[in-house]
Amino acid sequence: MKIDRSFLAAMTKDREGVLVQSIIDLGRTLNLEVVAEGIETEAQVVALRARGTSLGQGYYFSRPVPPEAVSPILAVGKLPLVRRRRRAGIAQEA
């Protein structure tokens, strides 16, 4: 079961937060995996984890990759991290 990104975008509002939790609860009741789609911020990841969701997809994790790149990513079990420029005082990721 997927949680649409439109619900995540407004998840911090009471009504949408309750709706997201209801979707998660419904998925659990039906014994389904619940996947949040369209995750774009760390705050969304934190809020979803606090609600018990461990599966998600979105630009927060990676931009879309071409089909030929999927097999190597799955074989390694993680996305290759690219070096990003950070503001002064913040270490760069390798």
Describe the structure.
With 94 residues, this protein is mainly alpha-helical. Helices cover 43% and strands 9% of the residues. It has a 3-stranded parallel beta sheet with strand order 1-2-3. The longest helix is centred in the N-terminal third of the chain and has 16 residues, at 14-29. The radius of gyration is 16 Å and the shape is globular. The model is unreliable at 81-94 (pLDDT under 50).
- Helix vs. strand class: mainly alpha
The best one-word shape is globular
Number of helices: 4
Question: Could you state the order of secondary-structure elements as H and E?
Answer: EHHEHEH
End-to-end C-alpha gap:
34 Å
In round numbers, the mean pLDDT is 79
What's the main sheet like? Answer: 3 strands, parallel
pLDDT < 50 runs, ≥5 residues: 81-94
* Sequence of strands across the biggest β-sheet: 1-2-3
Q: Calculate Rg over CA atoms.
A: 16 Å
Strand content: 5-15%
Number of strands: 3
Helix content: 40-55%
Topology:
Blueprint: E1 2-3, H1 5-9, H2 14-29, E2 35-37, H3 42-50, E3 55-57, H4 67-76
Parallel strand pairs: 1-2, 2-3
Observed structural traits:
globular, mainly alpha, 94 residues, 4 helices
